[in-house]
Design brief:
Order of helices and strands: HHHH
Number of helices: 4
Structural class: mainly alpha
Number of domains: 2
Strand content: under 5%
Distance between the termini: 81 Å
Helix content: 40-55%
Mean pLDDT: 77
Largest sheet: none
C-alpha cells in the first residue's frame, strides 16, 4: 500500500474511481472490485432499440396482430421484394442462354 491508498486507486485508467454503491458495501465488495466508465459505439440495431424506449408499455412489441392481416401484409412484402429479383434473374438467364459456348 502506498500512502494508505490501495494500488488500484493510483493505477486506474480513467483517472478516478466511482464510489462503490451502498449495495456493494453491504455485500462487502468494496475492496474486491472497482467500476470503470466504459463508452462504446452503438450499432444500428442498438440505436433503434434505444429509440423505441419511449413506447407506452414494453408489451406493445409483443402484441399479436390478426393472422389474416399479417398474412396479407407478408404476401405484399414478398411480392414487392421478389418481383425485381425475378426480373433480374430472367434477364440474366436470357443473356446466359444467348451466349455461345
Amino acid at each position: 500500500m502506498m500512502l494508505g491508498q490501495e494500488p488500484r486507486q493510483t493505477t486506474s485508467n480513467v483517472g478516478h474511481l466511482n464510489k462503490p454503491s451502498i449495495q456493494a458495501l453491504i455485500h462487502g465488495l468494496n475492496r474486491h472490485y472497482y467500476s470503470i466508465a466504459v463508452n462504446y459505439r452503438k450499432n444500428e440495431l442498438e440505436e433503434k432499440m434505444l429509440l423505441n424506449l419511449h413506447k407506452k408499455k414494453w408489451t406493445d412489441g409483443l402484441t399479436l396482430r390478426r393472422f389474416d392481416t399479417h398474412s396479407q401484409t407478408y404476401e405484399q412484402t414478398v411480392q414487392v421484394r421478389l418481383d425485381p429479383l425475378i426480373g433480374r434473374i430472367g434477364k440474366w438467364l436470357t443473356r446466359r442462354v444467348s451466349y455461345p459456348r
